[in-house]
Specification:
Elements (H helix, E strand, L loop, with lengths): L2 E8 L8 E8 L6 E11 L1 H8 L15 E9 L10 E5 L9 E5 L3 E3 L6 H7 L1 H13 L7 E4 L5 H12 L3 E6 L2 H9 L4 E4 L5 H9 L3 E6 L6 H6 L1 E9 L21 E4 L2 H7 L5 H12 L7 E5 L3 H9 L6 E5 L1
Parallel strand pairs: 8-9, 8-11, 9-10, 11-12, 12-13, 14-15
Antiparallel strand pairs: 1-2, 3-4, 3-6, 3-15, 4-5, 5-7
Helix pairs in contact: 3-4
């Protein structure tokens, strides 16, 4: 039986005003698909880029943004091992999450760990797993090391600060305003610094004595060069985003003398190689949340107000995670 759903649709690239509230029918789930009643949809910067037409060159129109949802299983197609009523979180690589009903591929649907409500689940799913990979898989953070986290009041940055502290590291956090620096400090940062490329190197060296061991950078642009210069020998530079939307230029000759590692990743690239992910990391984050080692800061908005959520992201007038609730 076909069902009627409400969703946000984009039929032309542009500003937040192109996000339209529409009604459409959804087919029952086919083989290896799951129909989910959405209780929370996460908002990410990638959604903004998709709306602008700058995320994928082959982006078709019309489309619905949203790469992560949490909710309740309504029905499963054949070869999908989910029961009606199960609480799940889903990764929608190609979008589609800004809706009250979503059909997701079964191999990208994961049972909700105990203790995670839907709004919390989407706050720790893509952004939390990104932060976890940045700190542990790619940053290889060790107790006592110094970690420099940019955009430390944002979704990924705020969680990266907390995960680094939980790993026994010391954290330098940057943000774009005094209010956001206060948020970063509340997340546990040992020192909060203005995101000023002109003063960053001196500030890091003054705080640490000789530089930091790991950089988690979700901003890029003008911050890249001084952040790289702030690393001490054997440092690791992990790129998790590019909120500045400005190029970051790397002179490879700067990497060799200090044996630096520079890398970037997307969650989906990890999933392609590691079948245990992201389920294993989601459970790890859930345990940290249950143990009180992760504080989740989120703002909920009605699904109809998706344009407002995009405005907040573009103007950087928010901290933490933005969640759309049907």
């Amino acid at each position: 039986m076909r069902r009627t759903r409400h969703l946000i649709e984009v039929d032309s690239f542009g500003g937040p005003e192109v996000l339209r509230w529409v009604e459409a029918e959804v087919d029952p789930p086919a083989a290896q698909q799951v129909l989910i009643q959405v209780e929370a949809a996460g908002v990410n910067f990638a959604d903004v880029l998709m709306r602008r037409g700058g995320y994928r060159r082959d982006q078709d129109l019309p489309f619905t943004p949203g790469i992560e949802v949490a909710g309740c299983v309504l029905a499963s197609g054949t070869d999908a091992s989910f029961e009606e009523g199960e609480r799940v979180v889903a990764f929608l690589e190609h979008g589609g999450g800004y809706a009250d009903l979503v059909v997701a591929p079964a191999d990208r649907v994961y049972r909700l760990p105990e203790g995670l409500e839907p709004a919390v689940a989407v706050a720790v799913f893509i952004q939390g797993i990104t932060a976890l990979y940045a700190i542990h898989r790619y940053g290889r953070v060790q107790p006592g090391e110094w970690v420099l986290v940019h955009a430390a009041a944002g979704g990924v940055g705020g969680l990266a600060v907390q995960l680094a502290k939980a790993a026994g590291a010391k954290v330098l956090a940057t943000a774009s305003s005094p209010a956001k620096l206060e948020v970063a400090s509340a997340h546990g940062a040992d020192e909060a610094l203005p995101a000023d490329p002109a003063t960053l190197v001196d500030a890091v060296r003054h705080a640490t004595g000789s530089g930091c061991d790991v950089v988690v950078d979700g901003v890029g642009g003008a911050l890249f060069g001084p952040s790289l210069a702030s690393l001490r020998a054997h440092g690791r530079y992990v790129v998790v985003g590019a909120a500045s939307q400005q190029p970051s230029e790397l002179d490879a000759r700067r990497v060799m003398p200090r044996a630096l590692t520079v890398c970037g990743f997307l969650v989906v690239r990890v999933l392609e190689q590691d079948p245990a992910e992201p389920g294993r990391s989601l459970e790890r984050l859930a345990q940290l949340y249950r143990d009180g080692l992760l504080r989740i800061e989120s703002t909920e908005l009605p699904l109809r107000n998706a344009a407002r959520a995009h405005e907040l992201i573009e103007t950087r007038r928010h901290s933490g995670k933005l969640v759309l609730v049907p």
